[in-house]
């Protein structure tokens, strides 16, 4: 059976099946599932008797429709009784994914008297006299608010706050697992910029940092800028900065693989929205040779009229040859393609027109801008945002360590110097002697990543003058309405 999407653990199902107790029955199941396009990942015998064997067959499918097709194929086999189908993703989310645990024992009156009244009153008075002590004596020192209004949930659009909660829970779980940071979802039942800013300012005393997530552009830019101005804790929009950090890290190693230098390459970026703009700004800061920004307006160039300020700035500071054609024409001869936009914009034939030893980062999720299997026929290095493909560019490589470093440094803001330091740290974890076309970023489970990023961010916070001055750009509040784009966040 031909399927357009790649099977993924995100659509993993477990099917409980009763089959006759003969030597060929279980083999028929796995063969049929494979022929239906599924990837069998486990087969467990649950029970048996002289006549039947009951098994749980677990497999990855491409989407919900494909899962139904696989089940139908198995149901139609002679002698097979499909008894139950479980969606493993939904099972994982039952009851939520995070909880609160006490760090102190409350077994005796003595312990209760110190953790709560009357002893706690002395701690309250100490903080009232010196508010900075809140970082030392409360959860503020290690707690981040993961804030969303549900207006741009993954690549799904405006689903609202309740539907955004599973993503924010997942983000909080990743913070804890990879950075030791206590994060909590704060989903807001408003999409008014002023209200969001007001609410976050009001809750900020409890937190050491704010992670903005899945808030639609252009409001996300203004919200971030206003909160940075108003608060004395770091405000970090992961859809922008986390993606940019990870892309720069991956590109650093990809260029090492192919033996090219950033100042010598031409990069095409599909998607001049939140992530794309942040990526391009960071590449420009690092001295990239040239960039062509492509969005719904086409290639941004000097000659387009009625551009919003951010796109006008991109048109004036990128695209040296003033290319004005389509995306396929832009990638012809380019050294690097970075997609943070929409699926299936390019084909393998388009990648074949790129420069020798081309690099392709197709990051739209779940379906990338070009089929990675086709891209690999022509590009030297290919990366996606998918966990089932080599070179997964995933924001979890960045944000836990970035916040760990900022919290440890008692940083009051997130800076571009921190972004550059974090990107270099991620790239260096791989090691120049270990990189190759299928390993340009470390695994998200590499225990070295978050500590390395945290150390780099702490150093950048303590010595910001160690990096060059930033490239000037328009104010965040001036950024335009933009196309919806993909994020490298899981």
What would your notes on this structure say?
- It comes from Micromonospora narathiwatensis.
- This is Malate dehydrogenase (Oxaloacetate-decarboxylating).
- One of its GO terms (molecular function) is oxidoreductase activity, acting on the CH-OH group of donors, NAD or NADP as acceptor.
- Keywords: Oxidoreductase.
- With 490 residues, this protein is α/β, with parallel strands linked by helices.
- The chain folds into three domains: 86 residues, ACT domain (Alpha-Beta Plaits, 2-Layer Sandwich), CATH 3.30.70.260; 93 residues, 3-Layer(aba) Sandwich (Rossmann fold); 222 residues, NAD(P)-binding Rossmann-like Domain (Rossmann fold), CATH 3.40.50.720.
- Helices cover 38% and strands 17% of the residues.
- Strands 11-10-9-12-13-14 form a six-stranded mixed sheet. Strands 2-3-1-4 form a four-stranded antiparallel sheet. The chain has a four-stranded parallel sheet with strand order 6-5-7-8, sandwiched between helices.
- Helix 9 links the parallel strand 7 and strand 8.
- It is globular.
């Amino acid at each position: 059976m031909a399927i357009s999407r790649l099977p993924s653990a995100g659509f993993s199902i477990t099917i409980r099946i009763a089959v006759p107790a003969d030597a060929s029955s279980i083999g028929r199941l796995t063969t049929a599932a494979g022929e239906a396009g599924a990837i069998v990942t486990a087969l467990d015998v649950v029970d048996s008797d002289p006549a039947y064997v009951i098994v749980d067959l677990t497999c990855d499918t491409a989407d919900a429709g494909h899962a139904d097709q696989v089940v139908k194929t198995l149901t139609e086999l002679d002698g097979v009784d499909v008894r139950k189908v479980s969606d493993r993703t939904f099972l994982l989310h039952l009851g939520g994914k995070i909880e609160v645990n006490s760090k102190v024992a409350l077994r005796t009156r003595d312990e209760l008297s110190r953790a709560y009244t009357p002893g706690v009153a002395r701690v309250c008075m100490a903080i009232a006299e010196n508010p900075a002590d809140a970082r030392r004596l409360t959860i503020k020192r290690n707690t981040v608010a993961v804030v969303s209004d549900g207006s741009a949930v993954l690549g799904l659009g405006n689903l609202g706050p309740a539907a955004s909660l599973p993503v924010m829970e997942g983000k909080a779980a990743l913070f804890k697992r990879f950075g030791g940071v206590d994060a909590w979802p704060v989903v807001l039942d408003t999409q008014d910029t002023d209200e969001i800013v007001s609410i976050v300012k009001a809750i900020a005393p409890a937190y050491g940092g704010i992670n903005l997530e899945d808030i639609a552009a252009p409001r996300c830019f203004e919200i971030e800028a206003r909160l940075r101005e108003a608060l004395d804790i770091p405000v970090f929009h992961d859809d922008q900065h986390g993606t940019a950090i990870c892309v720069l890290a991956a590109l650093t190693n990809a260029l090492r693989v192919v033996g090219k230098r950033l100042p010598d390459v031409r990069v095409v970026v599909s998607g001049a929205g939140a992530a794309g703009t942040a990526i391009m700004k960071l590449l420009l800061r690092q001295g990239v040779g040239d960039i062509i920004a492509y969005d719904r307006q086409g290639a941004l160039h000097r000659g387009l009229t009625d551009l919003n300020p951010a796109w006008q700035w991109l048109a004036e500071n990128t695209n040296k040859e003033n290319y004005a054609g389509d995306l396929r024409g832009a990638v012809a001869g380019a050294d690097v393609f970075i997609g943070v936009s929409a699926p299936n914009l390019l084909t393998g034939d388009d990648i074949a027109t790129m420069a020798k030893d081309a690099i392709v980062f197709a990051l739209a999720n779940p379906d990338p801008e070009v089929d990675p299997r086709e891209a690999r026929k022509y590009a030297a290095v290919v990366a996606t945002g998918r966990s089932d493909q080599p070179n997964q560019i995933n924001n979890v490589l960045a944000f836990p360590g970035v916040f760990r470093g900022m919290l440890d440094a008692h940083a009051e803001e997130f800076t571009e110097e921190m972004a550059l330091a974090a990107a270099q740290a991620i790239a260096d974890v791989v090691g120049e002697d270990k990189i190759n076309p299928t390993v340009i970023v470390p695994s998200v489970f590499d225990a070295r990543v978050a500590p390395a990023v945290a150390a780099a961010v702490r150093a950048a916070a303590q010595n910001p003058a160690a990096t060059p001055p930033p490239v000037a750009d328009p104010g965040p509040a001036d950024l335009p309405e933009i196309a919806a784009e993909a994020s490298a966040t899981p």
